[in-house]
Task: inverse folding
């Protein structure tokens, strides 16, 4: 999947959040999940995303990993909360 949202800084480099988002897209497994009689297609559990961020060394603590995931969600609209 091609990265459709790239922010270039003044020196022509990619925004660090975009680089992290690309790694996030490649590393977090999407599955169909059922919750309270509703099936959500191609989604992930937040805990899995936080675990990925920690495994990749993108954050030092769970709290930092949660903050990073929330930044990706709000600033890049890469995903949205469904429940």
Result:
């Amino acid at each position: 999947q091609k990265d459709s949202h790239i922010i270039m800084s003044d020196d022509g480099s990619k925004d660090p959040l975009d680089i992290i988002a690309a790694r996030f897209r490649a590393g977090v497994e999407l599955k169909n999940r059922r919750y309270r009689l509703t099936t959500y297609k191609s989604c992930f559990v937040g805990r899995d995303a936080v675990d990925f961020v920690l495994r990749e060394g993108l954050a030092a603590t769970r709290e930092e990993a949660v903050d990073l995931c929330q930044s990706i969600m709000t600033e890049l609209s890469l995903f949205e909360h469904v429940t």
Summary: The radius of gyration is 14 Å. DSSP finds three helices and two strands in the chain. The longest strand covers residues 38-43. The beta strands are 31-35, 38-43.
